Amino acid sequence: MAASEKPHDDAREMQRLNILSGARSVFARKGWSATMADIAEAANVSQGLAYRYFPSKEAIYAELLNRASHLEAFENVRTIDGSAMDKLRYLINELLDINDTHIELFRLSVLTLHDDALPSALRAELEEQAEAFRSLLQSLIAEGQQTGVIAPGNPQQLFVALLAFLNGLCIMGIQGSENAKRHFPDADIVLRILQPPANS
């Protein structure tokens, strides 16, 4: 590649990432009803320019799913030293970082997973990713109960409670007031619902 081509390629990649960032934010707020016009507005580009980089919102969504499937936070959590609670703490801190992309990716997956308008190929990929995430949480809860670092009780109920808590926090992190974001809880607050009773 000629040296003169590198700045042009870098600028194109930055614009591409800018459009993806805008799309991630819009999908996290509107779900699959988001349009290319919405995405272009969020990225502060013209709709025509957005189409130069991506032929459709389906292509953008597919790229977001592909990037989500390779997030190190989810790929590497099992290799972390420590208890199941330590692994959950790491995972939830990554997920709920309102200055990072994970919170929007999680929210857009929740919003679009059960949308009948989502194309079947994208739904299949999203369902696979969602199942992998659910299985990870369930296995960590089960492991934590076996080692005594997570409260006893019905593990499925604990899983559903944790998932509902995370979903609600993601909504607040994306759409909440500045005051709510300023006092956004960290993983230790969230994980109190899983901690064993003090006298156990």
Task: Outline the structure in words.
The structure is a single chain. The protein has eleven helices and no strands. It has 200 residues and is an all-alpha fold. The mean pLDDT is 89. The termini are far apart. Helix 1 (5-30) packs across helix 7 (102-113).
Beta-strand percentage range: under 5%
The run of helices and strands is HHHHHHHHHHH
Q: Count the DSSP helices.
A: 11
Work out the number of β strands: 0
Termini Cα gap = 65 Å
So what's the overall shape?
A: elongated
Low-confidence stretches: none
The residue-averaged pLDDT reads 89
State the secondary-structure class: mainly alpha
Oligomer: single chain
Q: Return Rg in Å.
A: 19 Å
Biggest pleated-sheet summary: none
Helix content: 55-70%
Q: What's the topology here?
A:
Blueprint: H1 5-30, H2 36-43, H3 47-53, H4 57-68, H5 72-75, H6 84-95, H7 102-113, H8 120-147, H9 155-175, H10 178-182, H11 187-190
Helix pairs in contact: 1-2, 1-4, 1-7, 2-3, 4-8, 6-8, 7-9, 8-9
How would you summarize this macromolecular structure in one to three sentences?
This protein has helices at 5-30, 36-43, 47-53, 57-68, 72-75, 84-95, 102-113, 120-147, 155-175, 178-182, 187-190. It is mostly helical. It is elongated, with a radius of gyration of 19 Å.
